[in-house]
Amino acid sequence: MKVSMLTLGCKVNQYEAECIANELEKAGHEVTNELVPADAYILSTCAVTNEAERKSRQMLTKLRKLNPKAKIVVCGCASQHNSKQFADKENVTITLGTSGKNWIVHLLESKGDYTVEPSTDFEEFGEPKIHRTRAYVKVQDGCDNYCSYCLIPYLRGHSRSRGLESIVMEVFKLSKVTKEIVLTGINISAWGKDINLSLADLLSSISNVPCRIRISSMEMNIITPELLKVMLAMPNFCDHFHLSMQSACDKTLKDMNRHYTVDEYIAKVDAIRNAFPHASITTDLIIGFPGETDQDFEETLENVAKIGFADMHIFPYSRREGTVASRKPMVDAQVVADRVAKMSALRDAKKKEFLSKQNGMVYEVLFEQEKDGYLVGHARNFTKVYILSGLAEPNTLAMVRCREPYLDGVLGDFVMEVEPE
Q1: Burial (CB count within 10 angstroms: exposed 0-12, middle 13-18, buried 19+), residue 195
Q2: Residues 6+ apart with CB under 8 A from 227
Q3: DSSP characters for 139-179?
Q4: Rounded distance between C-alpha atoms, residue 7 and residue 16, angstroms
Q5: Is 33 part of a structural domain of the chain?
Q6: Is 20 part of any domain?
Q7: Tell me, what's the pLDDT at 346?
Q8: Which of the ends of the chain has fewer CB neighbours closer than 10 A, N or C?
Q9: What is the rounded CA–CA span in Å between residue 215 and residue 218?
Q10: Residues 357-400: pLDDT tens digits?
Q11: Is residue 378 classed exposed, middle or buried when 0-12, 13-18 and 19+ CB atoms within 10 A define those classes?
């Protein structure tokens, strides 16, 4: 059977999809992640915003048109939120939520709605399908933060950690076939709290792995002197910190139930930069949160400008029914759009400023693909680097001297290839 897997949303979804793909291939199925005619489709959905859930429904419509006779399996956060929006559609044979995805291979020939409450234990997924350049390893699931705008704790359940031994085994196994591993989770900063360990313990256990180690996203509270010390001791640590902020106004942060102040956040940024002078620090911002006044937004704008992020993911507030914030009056849509445009302009300026500072720096770059006459890859600090094609090959490491900003990254000059360990 030919199975096409379409995955929307976060890196956790991507990891889980890769594990499903691996099990499908072991069972003798042909698997692709392309939007092509197939005998069966597996759609991993997202519900972090209304737009993400809408895109999940749109993708289902596309799949039904590609092959009206195909079986369709829908899983993930959007189906956990409301399985009927998918289960009632023609061709959808199976619906699952965020739990039980590891049953899909065995359920493929069946029919029904298998959506259940999120698991209270960490669900092991087997092993992901190997991608040579970069691999994801899921170390945690669920979230206990209950930010006032977010549905994810209700859809993914309480925070639960994957066992240390299981993680270490997978990381070292993957390190033999990939050059970079990204540790991911719904709230990776909570890893270990339920098993009397910490993220520092996890990183210490994989500190000598023979490939680059990157962390997908972190909460500011996890940044401690102990953690930074462990990171500094890791020979292959990637100094890119995606440090979720959401707002740079204390009043809005309190309304969001974020449990920190702007000054506390800035102190963590300063600690990172003292430890890793060339680190890139990126973040997420929600614009137009209910109750955000013009003054609140200007405060956020001013503080964000001071911090100087290398990049920002900017989202207009998305009302999610069932959250605390959904009961509050919305900010006018045009006001939100104007604020998003203003913040986006600041993001672009700060990103260009960060990229300009990379001029003359020599970084190790992992090259991933060729595009329009250039070989494209990322430095450890996630600076995107372009060098002329032919100077190196995809899936290789090379030392590169950065030059001026170019497109969404910088141009670079090849210095030397990095010998594999």
Answers
A1: middle
A2: 198, 199, 200, 203
A3: EEE------TT--HHHHH-S-EEPPHHHHHHHHHHHTTT-S
A4: 9
A5: yes
A6: yes
A7: 98
A8: C
A9: 8
A10: 999 999 999 999 999 999 999 999 999 999 999 999 999 999 99
A11: buried
Radius of gyration over every alpha carbon of the chain, rounded to an integer in angstroms: 22
**Angle ∠(310,77,256) on CA atoms, nearest 5:** 55
Which CATH number belongs to the domain containing residue 93 in this structure?
A: 3.40.50.12160
On whether residue 378 sits in a domain, the answer given is yes
Q: Which residues contact 99 (CB under 8 A, 6 or more apart)?
A: 116, 117, 118, 119, 123, 157
337-347 pLDDT, tens per residue? Answer: 999 999 999 99
Conformational region of residue 282, where left means phi above 0, alpha means psi within -120 to 50, and beta covers everything else: beta
Contacts of 65 (CB under 8 A, 6+ apart): none
DSSP 332-365: PHHHHHHHHHHHHHHHHHHHHHHHHHTTT-EEEE
Of 113, 145, 163, which residue sits at a domain end?
A: 113
User: DSSP states of 270-299 as a string?
Assistant: HHHHHH-TT-EEEEEEEES-TT--HHHHHH
Tell whether 118 is covered by a domain: no
Domain that holds residue 409: 362-417
> Rounded to the nearest 5 degrees, what angle is found at the Cα of 285, between the Cα atoms of 302 and 289?
90
What is the DSSP track for 179-205? Answer: SEEEEEESSGGGTTTTTT--HHHHHHH
Yes or no: say if 405 and 382 are a contact pair by the CB < 8 Å rule: no
- Bridge partners of 371, per DSSP, are 374
Number of folded domains that form the chain: 2
Total-model pTM: 0.94
Domain boundary among 113, 137, 166: 113
Contact at 8 Å (CB) between 228 and 272? yes
Query: 392: domain CATH number?
Result: 2.40.50.140
Residue 421 in this model has a pLDDT that exceeds 70 = no
Give dist(CA 154, CA 118) in Å, integer: 8
CA 72 to chain centre: 25
